[in-house]
Amino acid sequence: MLSRLGRVQEARDWLAALPVVDDAERIQVVQAEALLLRDAKDYRAVFEVLSRALEKMPDAPDLLYDRAMAAEKLDRLDVLEQDLRRLIKLKPDHAHAYNALGYTLADRTNRLTEAVALLSQALKLSPEDPFILDSMGWALFKLKRMPEAVDHLRRAFTAKPDPEIAAHLGEALWVRNDKGDRDEARRVWQGSLKVHPDNESLREVVSRLMP
Fold it and tell me: What is the pTM of this model?
C-alpha cells in the first residue's frame, strides 16, 4: 500500500525492519522488495536487491529466477543465462526455467535450435502450459516453421487469451497470410485490445503490421 501511494522508500524501510528467523522468511522479504521496485519500473534497483541477496544465498531458486527476469530488462542476457542454467542444475524439473531461457534465446538471439531444445524439455515437464506453448510457437515462428508455430500459438491463446500471446499469434497469422489468416489476426488483436488497451507488446505489433 505504501508503494502504491508512491512512498517506495518508506515501503523498503518497513520491509528492512521486519524480523526474519530463517532463509525462507528472508527470501520472502527480498521478493517483496523486488516486487515493489518492479512495479515502480526500477529494474536496476530490482537487480541490485536480488544480487545482494544472492551473495548470501547463492543457490536460492526463487532468487535466481527473479534476478534472471530482472537481468532481461537490463539487457544482461549473460546474467540471465548464467542464473537460469544454475537454476536448471539445481532443479532439473523447473519447467519455467527452461521456458524463460528458451524464449529469451528465441526472441533475443539467433540460437534458435538451442531455444527449441530447451522449450521441448519445458513442454515435456508441463505440456499444457499456455506460456510454454506460446514460447515454442514463437521459436517456431522465428524458424519460419509456420504451420507448427500457428498451431502452438492457437493452443496457447485458446488456453489463456493473454495479450502477449495474442500479439504473437496475430503476427504469425499475419506473416503466414494463408487464406483467412489476416482476418483472424485482426480479430485476435482487436479482441485483445478491447480488454488490454494499454499492453505495449500488443500495441506495437498492431501499429507495425495492421494498416
Answer: 0.89
